[in-house]
Amino acid sequence: MLNVLMLGVGQCGNRIMDAVNKEAFGGSKLAKYYSKQKFPSRVETVALNTAVNDLKELKFTAAKDRLHVPNLHGVGANRNKGKQGFWENQDMIMEEIEKRGDFDIAFVMTSVSGGTGSSFSPLLIHELKSRYKDITIVPIAVLPFREEGTIYLQNSAFCLREMMEVEADGMILVDNQYLKRCSGDIATAYDKINTMVAQRLLFLIESLDSEMLSVTDLGDFKTVMSGGLRMGTLGFYQADKSNSSVRSAIKSSLKEIGLLYPANVDAGEAGRAMIVIQAGREHLDVDEITKEIETLTASIGHVFKGIVVKKGAPKVLSVLSLERVPGVVELYEKAKWAIQEERERKDRAKNELSEAFEHINDLEEIY
Amino acid sequence: MREIYLALIILIAAGTMGAWAAEDDGVSFDEFSMNLGDRVDIGDLRLELVDIQSVRDGLTVIRVSEKAGKFDEQRILLVNSPNNFKGGSEDGGLTVTVVNIFDEESAKVRLEYPSSMGTPRKRASETPAASRAAPNLIVQKTLDSQRVSVGDEVKVSIIVRNIGTDTATNLQIYDQPPLPEFAYLAGYPPKLRSELGPGESDSSAYVMQAVKAGLVKVPSIEVRYADSKKKARSNNSESLEITIDPPRLPNLEVYLSPTTQVKPGETASLNLTLHNSGQAAATRIEVRSEVRPQDIVLTGLDRSFFEILPGKSESYSGTVRGERSGNYTVTVEISYSSGESTNVKRVTADVLVLEREYKYLYYLLVIPIAIVVGWIYKRHKQYKY
Ligand SMILES: Nc1nc2c(ncn2[C@@H]2O[C@H](COP(=O)(O)OP(=O)(O)OP(=O)(O)O)[C@@H](O)[C@H]2O)c(=O)[nH]1
Ligand SMILES: [Mg+2]
Fold this sequence. Notes:
The complex is a heterodimer of chains A (367) and B (385).
Chain A lengths: L2 E7 H15 L6 H4 L7 E8 L2 H5 L9 E3 L10 H20 L6 E7 L4 H16 L4 E8 L6 H16 L5 E5 H4 L6 H23 L9 H8 L5 E8 L7 H9 L15 E10 L6 H12 L4 E8 L5 E8 L3 H33 L9
Parallel strand pairs in A: 1-2, 1-4, 2-3, 4-5, 5-6, 6-7, 8-9
Antiparallel strand pairs in A: 7-10, 8-10
Helix pairs in contact in A: 1-5, 1-8, 4-5, 5-6, 6-12, 10-11
Chain B lengths: L1 H23 L2 E9 L3 E4 L2 E10 L4 E8 L5 E7 L4 E3 L8 E8 L4 E9 L6 E3 L13 E7 L3 E3 L3 E10 L6 E6 L7 E5 L14 E10 L3 E5 L3 E5 L5 E5 L3 E6 L6 E5 L2 E4 L4 E10 L5 E11 L4 E3 L3 E6 L4 E9 L4 E13 L2 E13 L3 H27 L2
Parallel strand pairs in B: 11-19, 21-28
Antiparallel strand pairs in B: 1-8, 2-3, 2-9, 3-4, 4-5, 6-7, 7-8, 10-12, 12-15, 13-17, 14-15, 16-19, 17-18, 20-22, 22-26, 23-25, 23-27, 24-26, 27-28
The complex binds guanosine-5'-triphosphate and magnesium ion (MG).
Guanosine-5'-triphosphate binds next to helix 1, helix 5 and helix 8 of chain A.
């Protein structure tokens, strides 16, 4: 059995983690009062934040799993402040995690653009790596809406780089900008995105830790994540009863519309893939599946396949590592522009004031 | 057989002859127009129209006397109502009916008499009516009730009126000695003025109490007096009858709620009603209650009442408190006094103390709810940050 640590850092990370806990209860609002969470493995969840209000907002995460970094009320998107906060409370935070036992894999969920999550996560990953020798760490990085402002853009740029540098085992991208089409207003869009991410993560954990017809395991997952740019994303498709063909379900799970970060698999943007198929036995024609996987290898370097027998129409989860991330590159271009503009603004403002002050050079107050 | 027929025929013949014989001593009648003082003689008896008191009210005074002097009775007769003197015509006496009053001085009188007495002969008065001045008393004795019960009081009134033309003197009342059926309470013996002028009247009353049941003939009262010539006279009232019923008694009816159910640990009330359906007050009423077996507590039924008047009721309630389930019998004993004797009545009622079973049902319901609430609260605490 796998020991899984799920860490939600900052408001965005907290909320995704809350969605994970909700899904583990079966997705119902009241289930937490009577039901038991059904995690496929031993899963520990910890929500970490500098803002107590963000922690209070959570509904499905047990109180003991909500960890407030004391003396702070959010860091106002300031990553320097965030890092300072982490260092000051590092021992407390790590102790809190370590008392939950040993872990094989950790998912660190955060937005890359906010203050707390984006500054804590790289440092946290580094700490986890040094304390748990064989742990696999996969950040779930949420990219901002591009119009959210210059600070969020620059935070994203620096955070993403730091996370690549701390030797995480790949990274799963979730792009708010791309996924906002899910819903009209932001709040429901967030909820939908969080639920999507939560369901896919639980599916993924299950696929790494279950009796399968054809097995995928943590090793396969690591191999996939270490392919390409070590950045990847998740695709998903659930067939309905009218069209329950496994082959088309596999295809659909790789379509751009089913991914959390836009990528063109047919155009060879995916480096490696792990395809997990869950379906009732009557839908599981192994030949068909093998044929479809073979056609996929034409455009993707290597494809692992896993098959889980479970009643119902086929559900397919695809884990991809990417070889090209034009969206991220574009984000860096924007970030560069944003940083420059931010500096110019500051200089301009500074000049304006110093010019104003110049008017009273050599003058004194007279009463 | 033949002898029997013969006997029968003789019997029938005898019966028929008896009937003929009865017809033989039949009753005859004659009517006479009489002036005041006129007399009709028949056999030994003499009838006299003494006075006409009131033409309007139809009152005349008739006197019937025996020539030998043994019988002499004077009465006031109402027009058209037959009056028997000396037993009446059926019994060897006379039956007199004033058929019509013509004026202050004359009336038509019908006389019935046994045919065997012969023929009546009328003799006109020798002296003119106006010259015969004499006192004449009408005596009336009345009871205020013809039917009473033992213990009731009866008022006897005596009225004497002088309807004569002269003063009556030396009036004396002769009432029968006290009757054994009555106790005399007040006013006895009655007293009257000793003199009554013409047209005057006097009255007296006394009160007695019925003490023994039965049909009592109250004898007539006699007033003796003298006229101006010191001649002794007397007049009687009519005799009366009164029925005395046995004494009135109280009768307490007792109503007690016949069955009562009570839950263990709770109380229920037992309603008791005492109703006096008798005709006299029940007094010194004592109510005593008892429950068997004695595992339950019964309170509030024991009471005393001074009296309950006839037709009245007393209602109140006691309480039973259920302890152990089962069937219990409540016995209530009521004693009361009805004059001399003491009566006792007894009623019983069932009290059913129910099983405690429902408590378990209640726990069966409450415990799971408590568990669920506790569980939810625990979860709530777990998720409350
Ligand atoms: N998908 C998703 N994105 C979110 C959610 N909440 C916030 N975000 C995104 O997260 C970014 C803001 O980061 P937060 O996580 O709110 O910030 P933080 O880590 O709490 O840091 P501070 O608030 O600055 O201390 C923005 O780009 C939001 O669009 C959420 O529930 N779901
Ligand atoms: Mg925040």
